[in-house]
Amino acid sequence: MRYQDVGHIAFRVASIAGMSGGAAADGSILKLFPIAKPRTVKPVLCLSLLGAAVALFQFQQVKADDGERDARFIPSVIISSAVPANGDGNPYGMAFVPKGFPQGGPLKPGDLIASNFNNSVPIQGKGTTIIKFTPVNGQVVASGSASVFFPGPKGLGLTTALGVLRRGFVIVGSVPTTMGTFATIKPGSLLILDRHANIVLTLTKKDLLDSPWDLTVRDEGDVAKVFVSNVVSGTVTRLDLAIMNGKPVVMGTTHIAKGYMVQPNAAAVILGPTGVAYDADKDVLYIASTADNAIFVVPNAARRTAPPANGTGAVFIHDSHLRGPLGLVLAPNGDLITTNGDAVNGDLGQPSEVVEFSRAGKFVGQFNVDPAQGGAFGIAVEKSGDDRAKLAVVDDNINAVSVYTLQEQDRD
Questions:
Q1: Which residues contact 211 (CB under 8 A, 6 or more apart)?
Q2: Higher-pLDDT residue of 412, 84
Q3: Of 221-230, 240-249, 401-410, where does mean pLDDT reach its minimum?
Q4: Taking the model in full, what pTM does it have?
Q5: Are 253 and 208 in contact, with CB atoms under 8 Å apart?
Q6: Is 409 within 8 Å of 1 (Cβ atoms)?
Q7: How far apart are CA 344 and CA 266, in angstroms?
Q8: Is 90 exposed, middle or buried (0-12, 13-18, 19+ CB in 10 A)?
Q9: Residue pLDDT, tens place only, 286-339
Q10: CB count, 10 Å around CB of 36?
Q11: What's the CA gap between 265 and 354, in Å, rounded?
Q12: Nearest Cα residue to 185 out of 153, 150, 159
């Protein structure tokens, strides 16, 4: 299979503090023509369309384990995170609402939600809101589509750990701080919300969840397995859930990995295990460990009762294309896609990169979501057809979310 090469128009929307011009990665892979010179705009709560550009994202051809193919991401639209009335910002987590999500609340299948880590001051680890974006005619649009799904109590510090269950629940992590620093991190928790944004269950350290930083879900309807990275303890927990009498019930929690590097970081508060991606066909869990600058793989993830003998599992990817990997998803074709936060092995010439690796762990291609470092963070993928998928990526630098379309086509 290969990905179809087509062009598209990309839109860039005002952030709360300003906007940036077009970005360019390695010229052989990506080129985005500039759309405007950087400028400062007055803080606003509404969205304002500022410019457009034709973009052509051409990935390198590689010889991967599944044969030669070319991959291509087409920018669909860039939308503001729509900073809510309380001023929250710094979006971290991303998730699509899946098909089959029940009616009767503000969320609908196809909606995109994002969790905010900062408050309005801004202080990291004090954001409380989950924002939702509603598609129009199947497309997430730039103007008038954002609103608050979950306002949240003060001081939560909502993280990249964000997921949605088909039975009508949203799962989100919280790692609060007192003053936005490593030294002031407080015990975290994992919240489960119903479709009306009510907290119905709170899981904490006693549930082996001391600092939920990211998560992924294996959703089978009435039962689900939730894999959660804990950034403070450097561990990964599997949460076995069941939906009983319309409510989520924890059937068990298990540490399935440990020993990932954890270190303070002035810009990001803390570096540790972040993105997790589960391959159900192989029953393996991939973990993006930011401080280790590597992606690990843990076998028998859904069944194991303890961490591997070495704690972390085997190193799956450790090469120069990783620069502090954060978010991690499994693409519909089996490839891994990660976001680089630039806190480790940073390169000013390749900032805020989204990087794709084949099923064999070989580099496929990359593009950046922002011309400055530190923009790429949370990531989510939604399969929207037999040969199409949507990829959503956070740009923390301008409080924005980018939505890309992936299209696959039979080889010629």
A1: 173, 175, 185, 187, 188, 230, 231, 232, 233
A2: 84
A3: 401-410
A4: 0.84
A5: yes
A6: yes
A7: 13
A8: buried
A9: 999 999 999 999 999 999 999 999 999 999 999 999 999 999 999 988 999 999
A10: 14
A11: 21
A12: 159
pLDDT score of 383 more than 90: no
State the DSSP code for 342.
S
d(CA 159, CA 213) in angstroms, rounded, equals 6
Task: Look up residue 307 and give its two tokens.
Answer: 């961490």
- Other beta carbons within 10 angstroms of residue 98's beta carbon come to 17
What is the identity of the amino acid at 388?
R
338: tokens are 């990660």
Q: Give pLDDT tens digits for 136-186.
A: 655 655 545 678 999 999 999 999 999 999 999 999 999 999 999 999 999
Q: Is the pLDDT of residue 9 over 70?
A: no
pLDDT in the model for residue 406: 73
Backbone angles phi, psi at 183, to 5 degrees: -65, -20
- Within its chain, how far is the Cα of 315 from the centroid? 21
Residue type for position 250: V
Grouping H, G, I as helix, E, B as strand and the rest as coil, residue 174 is strand
Report how far residue 365's alpha carbon sits from residue 70's, in angstroms, rounded to the nearest whole number: 9
Q: In whole angstroms, give the CA distance from residue 228 to residue 126.
A: 20
Enter the tokens of residue 70.
């070319």
Cis bond before residue 43 (omega within 30° of 0): no
Q: State yes or no: pLDDT of 65 exceeds 90.
A: no
Q: Is 159 helix (H, G, I), strand (E, B) or coil?
A: strand
CATH architecture of 2-409: 6 Propeller (2.120)
Cβ-contact 274, 244 below 8 angstroms: no
CB-based contacts of 229, cutoff 8 Å, min separation 6: 161, 212, 213, 214, 215, 235, 236, 272, 273, 274, 275, 276, 287
Within 10 Å of residue 101's Cβ, how many Cβ atoms? 21
Work out the number of other CB atoms within 10 angstroms of the CB of residue 379: 26
Collapse the DSSP code of 110 into the 3-class scheme (helix H, G, I; strand E, B; otherwise coil) and give the result. coil
For 179, phi and psi rounded to 5 degrees? -130, 15
